[in-house]
Amino acid sequence: MEARIDRVTLRERERERERERELEKEMQSLQEKASEWSGVDTGDAFAIDDDTNLFQKLGGLQTFINLSTNFYNRVYDDDEEWFRSIFDKSDKDKAIQNQYEFLVQRLGGPPLYSQRRGHPALIARHRPFHLTHKAAERWLHHMQQALDNTSHIDDDSKIMLINFFRHTAYFLLAGIEQKNQSLHPCKDAPGRHPCTNF
Amino acid sequence: MEARIDRVTLRERERERERERELEKEMQSLQEKASEWSGVDTGDAFAIDDDTNLFQKLGGLQTFINLSTNFYNRVYDDDEEWFRSIFDKSDKDKAIQNQYEFLVQRLGGPPLYSQRRGHPALIARHRPFHLTHKAAERWLHHMQQALDNTSHIDDDSKIMLINFFRHTAYFLLAGIEQKNQSLHPCKDAPGRHPCTNF
After folding, report:
1. Between chains, do B118 and A27 touch, taking CB under 8 Å as contact?
2. Which of A132, A151, A158, B131 measures 20 to 30 Å from B157, CA to CA?
3. Contacts of A121 in chain B (CB under 8 A)
4. What is the ipTM of this complex?
5. Which pairs from B3-6 meet CB under 8 Å and 24+ separation?
6. B-chain residues within 8 Å CB-CB of A110?
């Protein structure tokens, strides 16, 4: 009996290891998937880091408050109910603040986001939202409009920013899709009731 | 029949919204949980951002290569098999590179990590690992040793760094625990076979 338990434990442990290895490979391919889906390669997506400090170049905090306010005004007023409803559980002012604080920090300004909320943990923090390719494109559409309607953002910076946003949107999508797939307990164990795994 | 389908759809949608609202609240409390579990408040955890550029202050890239090499030497040689085995599916050189590139970028150096791997997405990328409170403490123990045995790291910076690491370790733990709980499909639907949700 003991030997049997040992065998079961060993087999289960081996299966768990195998699953961990798979997960790690999947996580490593996130960036590739994001590039493929978004059509933006890594170099272009992170050109925001190559240039001079974008936070300063674009005029500092007020520009980013304006950009995020303009963006979320469009999102919360969207005619498309399916898109608007993705956000209707969130407070608009908080959404604006989360976004501009993240952008300020990411683009070379003061670390406002981490001081208030810790690590961005982008994939995990987007998990509550129902993201799809269609939603990513609608998000990017509004962001393009917001960029075009915010002062102090020159054309070169606009291109850099939209590349960064496009790549990031698909990075999130890839991360969330992977997670949902991998954590579906039935995936690797057809015929076994998944609840026995917990 | 149609009316019934509408009712079911509406109820399911409301249930999904409710779950999303819960998830969002949980994600918002991550930082608080990390502070409570780690004993490090947010101000102390992110004091790494207050000071002058820590990357430059500590001597640049080589210091961080040394720190991460020293750290992973300890991890991969750990006497405690349960801890060592958390890492045995990963390549040691890659683990070293991922860590020092992240630190260099996070502490004010060139964005090596994002140029190669995209956003850090800390919680999602740690998902393949089997993290526990005990493992977090063992990780921190090795990191403290590595900090103490790497040149060019002054005592003040050591304290700032270990506070950052301690808070981050528990932030990851909180994020991963939440995820596993919330994504257990049976959690909110006892009696319903979870596979019908997919």
Report:
1. no
2. B131
3. 30, 121-124, 171, 175
4. 0.81
5. none
6. 49
Average pLDDT, chain B: 86
- A43 vs B contacts (CB less than 8 Å): 115
Tens-digit pLDDT profile for residues A13-29: 777 777 767 776 776 68
Residue tagged 């001079």 (tokens):
A52
Structure tokens at B2: 């149609």
Question: What is the identity of the amino acid at B123?
Answer: I
Query: Does the beta carbon of B122 lie under 8 angstroms from any beta carbon of chain A?
Result: yes
Residue B45 C-alpha from the chain's centroid:
14
Residue of A21, A106, A125, A132 to mutate, testing the B interface (most B Cβ within 10 Å of its Cβ): A125
Predicted TM-score of the model (pTM): 0.83
Q: Are A33 and A170 in contact (CB under 8 A)?
A: yes
Q: Write out pLDDT tens, residues A74-103.
A: 999 999 999 999 998 889 999 999 999 999
* DSSP per position, A142-171: HHHHHHHTSTT--HHHHHHHHHHHHHHHHH
B194 vs A20, A114, A194: nearest CB: A194
pLDDT, tens only, B133-157: 999 999 999 999 999 999 999 999 9
* Chain mean pLDDT for chain A: 86
Q: How far is B148 from chain A (nearest CA, A)?
A: 25
pLDDT tens figures, B151-175: 999 999 999 999 999 999 999 999 9
CB contact at 8 A, B108 and B56: yes
For the record, the structure tokens of B192 come out as: 């319903």
